Amino acid sequence: DYLLDHFCNEGKTPRQSDMAKGVKGLGTYCGLRKSFLYPPQGSEPCPPSPSAPSPGGSDSLLQVAMPQKLLLTEEEANHLAEELVAEEERMKQRAEKKRLKKK
Asked: CA-to-CA distance for 26 and 18, rounded, in angstroms?
C-alpha cells in the first residue's frame, strides 16, 4: 500500500497529497484504480486520469483473461532448485577457468 500511495501521490503538491489521503480510493496508478487487481467492493470508481485514454476503447482489454501461473509440485520445485544449483556451479567453474587462463 505504501508504494501504491507513493505512486498515486507522485507529481502532486503536498496539499493535493494530503487531500487525496483523506479520500479513500481516489488515487490512481497509471490511470487505474488503486485496487485495479481486485473487484470493486461497493466503492465509487476513481475519476479518470487526464493522461488516461478514453474509456470507450480500453474496456475490451479488461475482459481479456490473463494466463494463470501453474502451481508447482514439491517434486518439480526440487528439480528446478537442483537445476539452479547446477547452473550456478557451472558458472563458477567457467569463471574459475577464465581466471586461471589470465594468470
From this structure: 12
